[in-house]
Design goal:
436 residues; six-stranded parallel beta sheet
Length: 436
């Protein structure tokens, strides 16, 4: 099939490359001509394991191309995906849909022959109706259907998630559109991937409901971790104890500094605002948003307390800046809340992240960027593990003890145990574990 992907951000680029790998002819479109030129030269705009090689192989095979002009590609397309950004709108928390609607208006004039227009972007319920209305108003004679096909890609594991998904959600009342989407996803259908066929509005809301539920799990276990510290229980053992229940499951039950990234913060907020608009407030989701915001802010105090209550003039080393490992994405990362707060209290900050350093330089001022974990920890009063990158999981703790003057290691991801850290002469602080 001939596929056009409008937008070469995280979702658009990964999806486009994977569809090309399925054997479809894909053209990824972006107005940013420099970005398109870089992609043609093999320069990726994001870090995602395996993406560079996947793009390179499919470009070489002639199945994947990039362009800044969508007109010709859209006119020949069977399916056009809208995969543009839907950031939080300033001032009210709603999803900003201006790029989605702008894409719809522009596409309307390019459609030639029957085309399925698919919202791949995460959008509030009812957005598909508006996209359809825009296209029909702009081009009354166009032959098309609008469908919803939300993505469920985890940063750092997106290619595997696309090729081996738990399910594919397709939202449309048009049998013709659904059949065309089935053909598009035929490689997954043959692998017996569940296809959830719904109305368009149901598909739109499914995406938000999924992300909100996962955010609930994260905030729940974080609050249980706080209780564990007060009563002397171990949150990791509790996570295992409840995660083995098939009704609950083990994923997203790791206590830490709070969720971040491109999806959960903005999607929970957008879902909350949508619910309020329809007079059906989501009290659980609202509580989760507040709980997560409070948690990230409280992490700085946790670090200060571990350092004896005063960090003025002391050097604090931060290992990990991105919201999770295997990505360079710093959106809503806990580091954005923690580092400025530590600076306000007089701390000097050193940082290292395997992939997030370039993004960090746009976010922070007056911090020292280091070449590796040991360079970061050298001559610091305390070290803080903030993101669970694999290379932080096997640090030489004897060397770490020699480098950190204050002999304090604060592990906000529960990577280590107290015994192994304390045996090297370090004070160890973790999350929700009385014995580390």
């Amino acid at each position: 099939m001939r596929v056009v992907m409008i937008g070469t951000g995280y979702v658009g680029l990964v999806s486009g490359a994977c569809f090309a790998d399925f054997g479809h002819d894909v053209i990824c479109i972006d107005k940013d001509e420099k970005k398109i030129e870089n992609l043609k030269n093999g320069v990726m705009p994001i870090f995602e394991p395996g993406l560079e090689g996947l793009v390179e192989s499919n470009v070489k095979a002639g199945r994947l191309n990039f362009d800044s002009d969508p007109n010709e590609a859209v006119g020949k397309a069977d399916v056009v995906f809208i995969a543009v950004g839907t950031p939080t709108r300033r001032g009210d928390g709603h999803a900003d849909l201006r790029y989605v609607y702008q894409a719809a208006e522009e596409l309307a004039l390019m459609i030639k022959g029957y085309t399925v227009i698919v919202n791949k972007s995460t959008v509030p319920v009812g957005t598909g109706d508006e996209v359809e209305a825009i296209i029909r108003k702009t081009s009354p004679d166009a032959s098309f259907d609008v469908a919803s096909n939300p993505e469920f890609l985890r940063e750092g594991a997106a290619i595997n998630d696309f090729k081996r998904p738990d399910r594919i959600v397709l939202g449309s009342d048009s049998e013709r559109a659904i059949e065309q989407m089935r053909v598009l996803y035929r490689p997954l259908y043959l692998n017996e991937t569940p296809m959830v066929i719904t109305s368009r509005k149901t598909a739109e809301l499914t995406k938000y409901a999924a992300n909100a539920f996962l955010a609930v799990k994260i905030s729940f276990i974080n609050e249980i971790a706080d209780l564990c510290e007060e009563v002397g229980a171990n949150v990791q053992e509790i996570s295992r104890g409840i995660g083995l229940d098939n009704r609950i499951g083990p994923k997203f039950l790791n206590a830490g500094p709070g969720y971040g990234g491109s999806c959960f913060p903005k999607d929970t907020l957008a879902l909350s605002r949508t619910a309020e608009d329809f007079g059906s407030p989501l009290s659980i989701v609202n509580a989760v948003i507040k709980s997560n915001d409070d948690r990230k802010k409280s992490m700085a105090k946790r670090i200060v307390d571990a350092c004896g209550g005063d960090i003025n003039g002391k050097t604090i080393s931060i290992l990990g800046l991105t919201f999770k490992p295997n990505t360079d994405d710093m959106r809503y990362s806990a580091s954005i809340d923690i580092i400025p707060e530590l600076q306000k209290m007089g701390a000097e900050i050193k940082v290292f992240d395997p992939e997030g350093m370039e993004e960090a330089q746009r976010e922070f001022e007056n911090i020292e960027y280091c070449s590796d974990a040991y360079d970061c920890l050298e001559n610091s009063f305390a070290g803080v593990i903030l993101t669970e990158w694999n290379q932080f999981r096997a640090l030489d703790l004897r060397r770490v003890s020699q480098l950190i003057s204050g002999k304090i290691l604060i592990d906000l991801r529960n990577i280590y145990s107290r015994d192994e850290v304390s045996s090297e002469g370090l004070e160890y602080y973790s999350i929700g574990r009385p014995n580390g």
